[in-house]
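Tokens for Monocopper oxidase-like protein SKU5. Go.
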Amino acid sequence: MAAGSAVSHMKLVTCAIVLLPLFVTIATSHNIFLDWHVSADFNLKPASSDQPVITINGMFPGPLINATTNDVIHVNVFNCLDDPLLFTWNGIQQRLNSWQDGVSGTNCPIQPGRNWTYVFQTKDQIGTFFYFPSINFLKAGGGFGPIRINNRAVISVPFPKPEAEYDVLFGDWYSTSYKDIRSRLATADVLPPDWMLINGKGSYLNNLSQSYEIFNVTQGKTYLLRISNVGTAWSFNFRIQNHQMVLVETEGSYVNQIELDSLDVHVGQSYSVLVTANQNATDYYVVASPKMSNASDNSTLVGVAVLHYDHSTSPANGSLPWGPDPFDLQFSIIQAESITWNLTTGAARSNPQGSFNVSNVTISETFILQASTATINGSSRYTVNNVSYLTPDTPLKLADYFSNGTGVYELDTYSKNTSNVNAVSGVFVASAIHKGWTEIVLENNLDTIDSWHLDGFSFFVVGMGYGKWIPESRSIYNLYDPVVRSTVQVYPGMWSAVYVYPDNPGMWNLRSQNLKSWYLGEELYVRVYDADPNPAKEKPPPKNLLLCGKFQPPAPIPAPSIPAPSIPAPSIPPPSIPPPSVPPPSVPPPSIPPPSIPTPSVSPAAKPPSSMAYNPNRTRSLIAVITTALSFFYIIGSY
Ligand SMILES: *[C@@H]1O[C@H](CO)[C@@H](O)[C@H](O)[C@H]1NC(C)=O
Ligand SMILES: *[C@@H]1O[C@H](CO)[C@@H](O)[C@H](O)[C@H]1NC(C)=O
Ligand SMILES: *[C@@H]1O[C@H](CO)[C@@H](O)[C@H](O)[C@H]1NC(C)=O
Ligand SMILES: *[C@@H]1O[C@H](CO)[C@@H](O)[C@H](O)[C@H]1NC(C)=O
Ligand SMILES: *[C@@H]1O[C@H](CO)[C@@H](O)[C@H](O)[C@H]1NC(C)=O
Ligand SMILES: *[C@@H]1O[C@H](CO)[C@@H](O)[C@H](O)[C@H]1NC(C)=O
Ligand SMILES: *[C@@H]1O[C@H](CO)[C@@H](O)[C@H](O)[C@H]1NC(C)=O
Ligand SMILES: *[C@@H]1O[C@H](CO)[C@@H](O)[C@H](O)[C@H]1NC(C)=O
Ligand SMILES: *[C@@H]1O[C@H](CO)[C@@H](O)[C@H](O)[C@H]1NC(C)=O
Ligand SMILES: *[C@@H]1O[C@H](CO)[C@@H](O)[C@H](O)[C@H]1NC(C)=O
Ligand SMILES: *[C@@H]1O[C@H](CO)[C@@H](O)[C@H](O)[C@H]1NC(C)=O
Ligand SMILES: CC(=O)N[C@H]1CO[C@H](CO)[C@@H](O)[C@@H]1O
């Protein structure tokens, strides 16, 4: 890091040099600093075609974020793509900090040629997660990677320490450019992706694959596989020839351990399983095959990797291990219902997971959300309660902070529990009662398996059922040990119900993980608002907050000596800034900046979605940057 680069708070990126991963983990401070150069690579050709693949520091999938409970992750993202970019951290709860969630409703995009640093904490979490680019359909081009949150040393884990851990990211893949797919989505009937990659590599059995993945094991040892479905559309059944798996964790919860021959993983879900190398030392097939598809053994849509024993005497052979009938959803449903929460084990904390449970809670509110499709103004859209989400130029979170939403969204315009009469496009923001238990029923009117994710929370998966949900459906709920996670599948023609405790104020995305559905409107935001003015409740915007849309950056501050509106450093309790989640006493018209909030200029006609780093006090930021840099070098020097 040259001293010069610190001068500009937000630096124009030199995109030519990308292969410079900077991984520094400072054990004592529990800060993890990462520099990510995100670019398009045309030479990887995982599916044999020379489409752009989104890499991070040249890697596909991107680098592992290997964190421990409560670590603080600093990810400086350099956008070397020609599309605006945001990353979201699937399943990371961003306690009191939806500013770092990285979806269109919370952050202005990082423009091409720019960089921006996320800073977030893995507060009170453990488990298996992943990250991915959240906007512009970029996920279909890659850019995803694994996140592990390890237990702190003082917390015991409910299984013996494995010999090694492997990240297993599998997902479907289009063999054409994400840009082509994106441009055709609204107008043409785009076929689902027809390839399957495991850790960015094609099938062992398909000679079009450039390479295939090998998991190395030693006979007699046990391994932890951290599995995520990073794809865009297909659910997969995962299995290993001649080997069983023990399911131990999902999306941050320890489950009651069950032995499985195969595991269904839906889009956006994560699991960890233990696999013991207890067979003869040869090679074995590792298979992920699509649900609800007749894809044959050797099709590109069947992922095949290799489990390779040390001193293996033969390559993988025989036929692929049989999975369940891909159209037998009953198998999948029964398996889902058998995944329950281990109430007695500790997780991020030593007290039992089950000490916070739903066996006796009072529901304050029920959301009934129905996913469907509709044609709106001639284009095909996905809808929730007949509303197709319309992404405003201004992130909801910014509007919330600067103008109590005025001019960008209106809270509860659309019903949370009935479908709009006509299909419309709109900015669907639903309120949730702070600390009032909320039941969310997700119904699927589509003919594919849907998968829903809520940012900011884990939820209790209390039930699934056929047809329409009715209040009597509650009689089949499991309120004793429902699994706690953040992504739940919804089978076609069925519903899934979850309970969530909205104790995390902020603006939170509730979305279909199926990329096309999400991109075409199957999402909404849930606003959790806490009237308590204590600033400890929700974090103030970060110092490097990007502005865009209605709230444009102020004109450049000419000289550092000119007094700027005072904004305290984040670590100092803010004396003059109003608590972030509390709206200004009266909503000012958008052109009047709210009292003592940094003054963005409002330009309703702002067309190019430019976003610039907001820099209230250049002097101070410069000092801060230099100080950070100095202490950084000091730490490296003493490392
Ligand atoms: C991840 O972090 C843990 C805890 O610090 C460490 O034991 C492990 O070796 C790390 N794994 C990788 C792949 O870096
Ligand atoms: C951009 O990167 C530089 C380091 O190259 C860093 O000092 C600066 O804080 C980053 N900008 C933002 C907005 O994160
Ligand atoms: C690849 O496999 C197909 C059959 O799946 C076969 O027809 C073809 O000849 C193979 N190509 C090469 C280069 O081996
Ligand atoms: C297994 O070993 C091979 C050969 O050394 C290596 O190329 C491969 O990356 C290893 N696999 C994993 C998942 O580490
Ligand atoms: C649940 O966790 C406890 C405590 O770690 C462990 O002893 C027990 O085996 C686990 N139960 C199951 C069914 O996995
Ligand atoms: C392992 O190899 C031995 C000797 O080749 C054979 O008898 C046995 O059936 C094999 N076991 C398995 C599980 O394949
Ligand atoms: C899959 O195969 C079954 C049985 O062969 C057939 O009934 C069904 O129509 C096929 N489905 C698709 C989508 O091709
Ligand atoms: C691929 O699968 C089809 C259908 O199962 C089969 O007919 C064909 O022989 C297979 N090809 C190869 C190369 O295995
Ligand atoms: C369940 O809740 C009711 C009402 O809040 C309370 O009276 C009762 O003691 C609770 N039961 C248990 C087992 O916690
Ligand atoms: C911000 O800038 C003003 C004017 O240059 C200066 O007086 C003040 O000390 C700065 N604040 C901080 C925290 O550096
Ligand atoms: C802010 O918006 C909310 C929801 O629309 C409304 O209930 C509240 O009264 C507004 N606050 C102010 C200060 O206008
Ligand atoms: C899994 C499997 O069937 N492996 C076999 C592959 O072929 C060798 C040699 O014929 C056998 O020893 C393995 O059992």
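The chain has two domains: 31-338, 357-528.
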